[in-house]
Hints:
16% of the residues lie in helices and 36% in strands. The chain has one domain. The protein has a 6-stranded antiparallel β-sheet with strand order 1-12-11-13-9-10. A 5-stranded antiparallel β-sheet has the order 2-16-3-14-15, with no helix packed on it. The protein is globular and about 70 Å long. By secondary structure, it is an alpha+beta fold. The protein has helices spanning 2-23, 144-152; strands at residues 26-30, 37-39, 48-51, 65-67, 70-72, 80-85, 88-92, 99-103, 105-108, 111-112, 124-129, 132-138, 157-160, 169-173, 176-180, 194-197. The protein has 2 helices and 16 strands.
Amino acid sequence: xxxFLLFLCLGSxxxxxxxxxxxxxxxxxxxxxxxxxxxxxxxQNVRMCIPAAFTDEQGQILxxxxxxxxxxxxxxxMRMRVSLKGDMFFISRQWMGDNGFQQLTLVNNSKAMKxxxxxxxxxxxxxxxxxxxxxxxxxxxxxxxxxxxxCGKRCTNATYLDMGEFGYxxxxxxLFTRPLYIWxxxxxxxxxxxxxxx
Length: 198
């Protein structure tokens, strides 16, 4: 009888944790202190590393990008440009820094964008408010419009970050490494560009 009650309590606790996780639609990840950087070469021994621009199946970066002041425009799209400056980012039609990439704008001046895409997926965004930049990630699959709406409740500006099967990322806090979207761990080498903090 004692064993049954113990299993019952543990089962209830597990169900409660799962419920709370999915009741909360998104999770916020605060960034380590430091300069936001972007690279088309995988950085090593950094405190944060997250896929950024879209990548096709051949490993081609989809959209224009800029590295150390040199612009690569061959594959530019109609998406806005995300420029990195210090520990902040800026979304505009023109480059506003020496490093950046093109990506979907989810929130612009506290207004959530709407999208026709009705597919549901795990979503991730680089966001900012008056206190600085941070990451938001959905706790379960949702449409792009629903995710943008959730981001709009928590930030003033947000840009999408690449997810899908190559969406593995991590944030280190001291000795602890917090993985983001652990299911993409085994395909992480197929990603071709990263947002990172050294």
